[in-house]
Amino acid sequence: MSDALFDVLRKVTTATITTMLLKKGIRRCWMNGPKPLVPHGKRLVGSAFTLRFVPAREDLATPESWAKPISTRGAIEEMPEGCIAVADAMGIVSAGIFGDILTMRMVKRNVAALVTDGAVRDKAGVLASKLPVWCAGVAAPASVNGLTFVGWQEPIGCGGCAVFPGDVIVCDDDGAVVIPQNLVAFVAEEGAEHERMETWIVGEVERGVKLPGLYPMNEGTKARYEAAKNKR
Amino acid sequence: MSDALFDVLRKVTTATITTMLLKKGIRRCWMNGPKPLVPHGKRLVGSAFTLRFVPAREDLATPESWAKPISTRGAIEEMPEGCIAVADAMGIVSAGIFGDILTMRMVKRNVAALVTDGAVRDKAGVLASKLPVWCAGVAAPASVNGLTFVGWQEPIGCGGCAVFPGDVIVCDDDGAVVIPQNLVAFVAEEGAEHERMETWIVGEVERGVKLPGLYPMNEGTKARYEAAKNKR
Amino acid sequence: MSDALFDVLRKVTTATITTMLLKKGIRRCWMNGPKPLVPHGKRLVGSAFTLRFVPAREDLATPESWAKPISTRGAIEEMPEGCIAVADAMGIVSAGIFGDILTMRMVKRNVAALVTDGAVRDKAGVLASKLPVWCAGVAAPASVNGLTFVGWQEPIGCGGCAVFPGDVIVCDDDGAVVIPQNLVAFVAEEGAEHERMETWIVGEVERGVKLPGLYPMNEGTKARYEAAKNKR
Amino acid sequence: MSDALFDVLRKVTTATITTMLLKKGIRRCWMNGPKPLVPHGKRLVGSAFTLRFVPAREDLATPESWAKPISTRGAIEEMPEGCIAVADAMGIVSAGIFGDILTMRMVKRNVAALVTDGAVRDKAGVLASKLPVWCAGVAAPASVNGLTFVGWQEPIGCGGCAVFPGDVIVCDDDGAVVIPQNLVAFVAEEGAEHERMETWIVGEVERGVKLPGLYPMNEGTKARYEAAKNKR
Amino acid sequence: MSDALFDVLRKVTTATITTMLLKKGIRRCWMNGPKPLVPHGKRLVGSAFTLRFVPAREDLATPESWAKPISTRGAIEEMPEGCIAVADAMGIVSAGIFGDILTMRMVKRNVAALVTDGAVRDKAGVLASKLPVWCAGVAAPASVNGLTFVGWQEPIGCGGCAVFPGDVIVCDDDGAVVIPQNLVAFVAEEGAEHERMETWIVGEVERGVKLPGLYPMNEGTKARYEAAKNKR
Amino acid sequence: MSDALFDVLRKVTTATITTMLLKKGIRRCWMNGPKPLVPHGKRLVGSAFTLRFVPAREDLATPESWAKPISTRGAIEEMPEGCIAVADAMGIVSAGIFGDILTMRMVKRNVAALVTDGAVRDKAGVLASKLPVWCAGVAAPASVNGLTFVGWQEPIGCGGCAVFPGDVIVCDDDGAVVIPQNLVAFVAEEGAEHERMETWIVGEVERGVKLPGLYPMNEGTKARYEAAKNKR
Q: Which residues of D touch F208 (CB under 8 A)?
């Protein structure tokens, strides 16, 4: 995945990305659950590094398990620079998958963001760590209270979407979307043009133009838009 | 509906309105779902202009459908100045019914507010458009991802309430309530007096008066209140 | 319960408290539902004063019922200074259990906080009253719209936890936890040491130490930590 | 409560009872959750004997707790002949409040039925015990897995309804309804007449009469009905 | 819609119909909610006659409303012979949309079936009326307890599907599916062939053939299947 | 796992098994969701063979995917005789993970049962295939409508429980429980004794003995029970 594509995607809203994917018949790309822990207006783009949890079982999900080779700690040390960690917490928001010590370490490793359909804990500390987080809640208990960590870089579900290692994740104030790897170039190119078009339409609305015929554009509007593009 | 009644209602909290409606046996008047997209402390009042969605079907809910006569675009152009648009999204929060271009146009048409038990998209743009919004979420996908628009100015459900075109909507930081048309005068008048009474009670609590006998008022307290009113 | 223990607990995060209780086999101690009405970064500690609601029945849950001896008003007048009121609203968020007049009175009585798995109403007024509130929502309707108040200082459920009068409640930005009375000393002591340890670990992460072996600590790390403690 | 009233109620469907209560403004009388464990077509009537659970806490909800004075065992021994036990399980269906040994003992004590918004366990044994049960599910784990028993003959919630000791419970294949004590005579008398009327209407529908004007009856139909009643 | 197509559809399972619609990109065609009130093994086919409810409001949803021109009674008298009534109850299962008197009348009018994402009441009587019913529950209260009827033959949602008047409904023990009008011929023809193919595959599985290559069929299997078809 | 242990477990109810596991601190062992497709009174025991799904993505979850090496078809051919297939469908009940052709093949392969927190399709055919099924629903659409199959014999969640390949599954009319591999001998032995004890208690209840002191047994009762055991 070229850096150039990522630079383009940083200027395409998640809203527009979902519309581009709909052109390819894909409706299930926006994760229902993850929201910005603090809305900050920034858009982040990265390759998905997946984490997988199953429900807790009292004999397995213990503080001792954190020292095992298959642990969230081990997973963090495998995360490549610039990736976006996506954690399948099965929508469980009564246990925080990560707290401040783990998000601090992720910042040290230059992880771009954490996305989960679960919760984080130590909210104050997580905010202080400056790791951008999209999550479905905040909870005091540790992951082992409700979850057993079972592995990384496997296919997962997150917020009702399938996420595969290497899919591209984009997140902004509207939430997080997943772009299948083979559609990234398509989405970036069409998305950039779509943003140009919507910017022009916004100007038209500001001028007082009515919506029918403008958005979506009819033939006359398309001609006016093309003319405007050529002028620039 | 006289403007004077609306001016009175602007000073009556939604909390008080629900209590006034309870006097008439109406418990189902507060919409469970719509919350201020940004809490801002303002109270808005307007006649309901209803919008109705049913679930998406892939052959109908397409970007192309936005160009049809029955479309959210067409509905917006029918909205009268000062109305509050109320959209029945069946509580679905995984698709945004409106984005920034549509809310910009609503502002141009002097629509007072948008209320929905669904979500909006393009959050940053919607905020920039300055349309006051009460909604149940924010989502990147367009309405067609989950919803099919079928008409306007029909009876709808929103957040568990029945809303008929012409009912009066009041919304503030406690959410949105619907007042049946024939009860608006009653609610405004009794509500205004109720607010006066609660303001006096607040003063009493500040003076250290205990709650029993004060709120609700017993006979002695009522006499004191009446005396205080006459003094003013 | 000694004030000294409470002072210690004020410096122990709810996250740490849940981990200490897990050592005793207790997983169900964090209430799923109550969140700070406004995140403010403060941690509050107090003995639980419980309030119990059952669902509304139209002949019982009326504004008139507020004048009865068994009423939320009567309960508030029984609350001891410094307590934390915990209200079992059965997770119903479509009616506000308390509004601003009641929270003002609680402040007058020096109640430390209100915790509920239900909603409050008159949000603007409740914020103005300065009572710290952890709740699951905001709603305009009064309690009688959905709830019947039946008593205080009984065992209750709140957010999926059992709460008994006299249990200790701690709440911060991660939510609210309940500590069984007989475990308070244990939690305070072990929790304080745990916080010291995590502070040291945070320093290590800042220095770039990897997580495995550090958190949780292996034998080598423990030795380094003990040495550091002795140095101080 | 006279036995005669109960005999009348045995011939009034729960559907009709809800309609009679609606005449008194009561909509919240049907419990959403309890269903017949096996549909059998019988209707049962009895005074409510209430049982109350709160969520489990691992230090309290243990098999050992079953030997405590406040236990489901103790409660069963207090149940009067002919009562209907109504258990508030907070809608939790992942733990069975009672198994076969307990339902056998209830049959020995001539308890008329068990109604709960929770689950039972040992389904095969419960069926063999012949206790009529209305519940929301079947689960293998014992109550202590998810619930702590805290008392009996207190006001409770069950399936979204308030139930007070001594309220009258009627259950049939449409579920379970609660009749406030002071409305039992009204419901029995009006209900019996309503059943007579509906029986006549059924005959009319069988003859091919259209619904409008028949159900509800207009003036002409009422006259025909009165004439038919007098003939009998 | 020709009767012949309906005869073909009567032999195509709802499972197969969903697979045929998936070929056209339609995934949202099975209603999540309606189940056979009594599983009986029969498959029913008919044109959709839609009914629409919104939530109850206490001043509107009264027994008196049943005498109004826009009422469920009026709707039933408009139902054409052989249609399948599909009622949008917004998934509310705490009020029965229809009871036995109404289902008796529907049988008199030769309505083929009732499908709803809500509940019916008077279960015993509804069963006695012999109207085939697919519903999401059984409840004692009448529709007015939770619902207001607002019209018929409008676009509706039912169990997460859009249903338009004139769409074709097929229901069997797997539930109810909706076929868009313009795809009925396609679904009937392809579905019938699909059933033939699956019947042959069933025979192969009975003979002990492994699944890979058989289902779905690879080229070799397809050749064998075509040969078998020609033999018949 | 010896066959003898399995024979013992076949006589231990799932209810008793959960109580035995509680002795080891394990509360999360009963799957919330799977119920017998038809209650039949039989108890089945087998080693877990796990199947894992993630949500559907339109480009992946297609009928074509069934021909891929990683497919439910491939998984079935790997199932060892006597195993119980446990499928993690994330609780999604709007798509059937398996239909009749697949369950027929499982019967051919001597699979003991299918357990899932999702749904099956082709109910009539699945019943005809005679494979014992515990599931959370029945739905017409194929798995690809809502699910993507990603692998087998991995750790999974099912009905809120962690299930690892090789754990032992027991299912009867109370649902399905999972026994961690290293606790199977403990559960079988203690469970068998527990069943003996409960059988004796049932006899006591039949004789009219009161519950307190009997269940759980106090010292006197224990002595009587031991005496009775010795007599046999």
A: 108
